[in-house]
Amino acid sequence: xxxxxxxxxDRAAALLVCLPVQQRLVDPGxxxxxxxxxxxxxxRALLDSVIRDVCDGAHSLGELDFAxxxxxxxxxxxxxxxVRRGPGGRIYxxxxxxxxxLVVEIDGGHHAQALNPVWDALRQNEVTLDRRTVxxxxxxxxxxTPDAFxxxxxxxxxxxxxxxx
Length: 165
Prior knowledge:
By secondary structure, this protein is of the alpha+beta class. The chain has helices at residues 2-5, 10-22, 28-36, 44-55, 61-73, 116-129, 139-144, 146-164, and strands at 79-86, 89-97, 102-107, 133-138. The chain has 2 domains: 2-55, no CATH class; 63-164, Endonuclease, Chain A, CATH 3.40.960.10. α2 (10-22) packs parallel to α4. It is globular, with a radius of gyration of 17 Å.
């Protein structure tokens, strides 16, 4: 908490909140309780948003960016780090708009390394076979062309909502 408040940039502060929760070194409930008891913070608005998103399941800067873009576009709050069952065990989904069956995966650079594309494809296929739409967004794409990817997410959400109605 202290490191995030005094980090050299807002991105670094967000990263210092994300990493310990992602690595399960810090319990999200305890983080939120400590934050709510904090009286002064030089980054009050930023850290309040980041901590609430992280405690709600966002585990990376890309997922935090995606949450912000969703709010800017008026999309409903998605479920985060959703656990599904597949033939090989548990499947973790970054983001799911559960009520309409839309899944969004935010792919960091590690998704392109070694066997990760194979495991990602198997996971995506399982989710698709369960009649959900899957949109994949490379984190680099979210940073370089956020409007193009978010336009696709909005269109996919509209189509999924129409199908669910």
